[in-house]
Amino acid sequence: MHVARYSDADAARAALQGVETLFMVSASETADRVEHHRTFVEAAAAAGVRSIVYTSFFAAAPDAVFTLGRDHAATEDIIRASGMRYTFLRDNFYMDMMELFAGDDGVIRGPAGDGRCSLVSRADVAATAVAVLLDPAAHADASYDLTGPEALTLAEVAEKISAVRGHRVRFVDETVDEAYASRAAFGAPRWQVDAWVSTYTSIASGDQAAVSHDVERVTGRPAQSFEEFLGAVS
């Protein structure tokens, strides 16, 4: 086994010798994540990697409302420019995170309004990745939008959590200013708070609302609904 940080070009190049297809999970959120990704992708190309399967983000774009979606768009450009074949798995926000959005008081707070999000389970993302990695040539230079089967408002998300878990969860719509103020106590750097708040504003904007059937197309089975996900997780 070889261990290498994305930011360590020499270690990454040594670790990737002999690898033909690389499954690249996006690095932890940092202010310089794109540069770490660039270093790792260039190391992969130098090591002779032929194709990369990268966990990107739904609606990734240079001007994405969700600020971290811009990181993913930049990384996709870096991978395309590398000369390697690629497959982009563009995951929407994870079902797995929704219960964590609620505070100790059972309230999900943020400026999402009545916007909708086609949440996806991590299990469906993993199943899609496995299918791609088993036959990377069949998915060369493809991009897949990975979503669940429906787009929900955060009020609906809260209602479904309440119904399955048996305790009340509710959504409170904040203004953008209120969202920044309610997160100020965490003492996080500005880029991180921007990411937190833009999670909600991206939902409000409609960027996260489209429903794709790419999970089923790639895996051969339908994506989990949010109720199914909640029922499978105790």
Tell me what you see in this structure:
The chain is of the alpha/beta class. It has one domain (9-232): Rossmann fold (3-Layer(aba) Sandwich), CATH 3.40.50. Helix content is 44%, strand content 13%. It contains ten helices and six strands. The protein has helices at 9-15, 33-47, 67-81, 98-101, 122-134, 154-165, 176-183, 190-205, 214-219, 226-232; strands spanning 21-24, 51-57, 85-91, 107-110, 142-146, 170-173. The strands form two sheets. A four-stranded parallel beta sheet has the order 1-2-3-5, sandwiched between helices. α2 links the parallel β1 (21-24) and β2. α6 (154-165) runs parallel beside α10 (226-232) and α7 runs antiparallel to α8. The longest helix has 16 residues, at 190-205. The radius of gyration is 19 Å and the shape is globular. The mean pLDDT is 97. InterPro entries: Ergot_Alk_Oxidoreductase, NAD(P)-bd_dom_sf, NmrA-like. This is NAD(P)-dependent oxidoreductase. Residues 6-172 form the NmrA-like domain.
